[in-house]
């Protein structure tokens, strides 16, 4: 490999130092917790490039639309053992400082509604989800780095103005129960992407935790049709295989699989079989490759790293073509592995890894958080000789194509 660059300054967004909820009084308005560092929690890693290659990376980050198809930008407590009481407070901090150096222009923000446990240990309760959205929106209103993107123009405006667009996304529709008009309510509250099911089955279909996937229900078909009409993009990342296939067939518009890897490379329920990717791409959809700890492993790279993640990327590109792949790395600010341990039952971690052995890492080096993940992916692509056009596609253009086909014009 050519001579590497030791010190790299990724292009930053204007950041005025704002921290979430600094307009309130800690101890009076909410219980304070010591939060994880957004920058420097673990030893930083920059994918090594030549000086010329690094210059190319910085030009790409400056000129192109860099999009994460799936992220959780919240900052978790430094002590992950406090997470349950922290979540019951219903107040999440956003990693503005970290995001300002991430190179990201658009984040499909999924909040933490699978663990919205204000009123229940199970998550996905309607009141809790609405509470979560409202609290985060109230914080957004007091800062000037992030804007909520309800339209295509909002996304382009964020790039022009040097800001970061947040596309409000939910990983499941469990919270609507059997009330289809709640889809409209969520749309009115800014939700533009929604999953059909998470781990457990719901009124729409089966999640990846279920041993028997009965597919999309009659109600699920109605919800898919309503989402198409509203202009809300559909996600099947956590659906069972049959449910995912049923959704792809039922939807009149392309869908996302926002954060996933290939079961052909790593045989776990959390990964999807290649035929699901082929069906998604055939309908114009896009598959986002993920990097949450211990997901996108491979036999060649059983220790989770950027190399194992990118092996999944290249496999899916070869399978469906460069026009149907993107990145939804599924990172956050804090001890992601520790959170998985704490939430093992609620998040179906056990089911996801059933039947496979893997080497546990404390974090995914180079993809540990949103701040370093996306610049390093661009570096990897540049190093491997991907063209500027192909990088433009997988870092944002493919996603925008689907939004233009699914959102309200």
Q: Biggest sheet: strands, sense, closure?
A: 6 strands, parallel
Report the radius of gyration as a whole number of Å.
20 Å
Look at the structure and give the mean pLDDT.
Answer: 94
What is the CATH H-level superfamily?
Metal-dependent hydrolases
Helix content: 25-40%
Gross morphology: globular
User: Which architecture name does CATH use?
Assistant: Alpha-Beta Barrel
Q: Strand content of the residues, in percent?
A: 5-15%
CATH topology: TIM Barrel
Number of strands: 11
Q: What are the low-pLDDT stretches, counting only 5+ consecutive residues below 50? A: 1-6
Total helical elements:
14
- Coarse structural class: alpha/beta
How many separate structural domains? Answer: 1
C-alpha termini separation: 47 Å
Query: What is the top-level CATH class?
Result: Alpha Beta
Order of helices and strands: HEEHEHEHEHEHEHEHEHEHEHHHH
